[in-house]
Fold this protein.
Amino acid sequence: MPHLTSTDIAGRIEDLYGASLADLEAHAQEQPPGMLSALLGMHDALALAERSIDFHRDHLARLIHPDRQIGPHEVSHLLDGTRRLAEAVAVREAQATSVAAVLQSLTRAPAPTSASPTPSPPAPAAPLAAQSAAHSR
């Protein structure tokens, strides 16, 4: 499965529902929880993980800048930053994989056409054969 970003996922959600993400978020607020709110929540978690990756990557880049000396105190910060970056990457991968799998299983329903016939009501059930009132011995 290709690596998908939160922007890719947002586009797929918009394509699926035929509306902008902002409109979908507003609509989801007015509805009981369902697939749309689940997809939006997964998208938010993915976007948060991506922001966390950017933050921790930039933080590590500042810590290992060539003009900085790395002493015993900085090593603990490097290790912590590396751990946090790895956690953010793991969250991003899990969220991206999950939401992509869900989106792949969904398709946009075709728009109803006015030429489509309306379903007819079911035929009435056949009458039951009259049972004899006399009991057999």
About this structure: The radius of gyration is 28 Å.
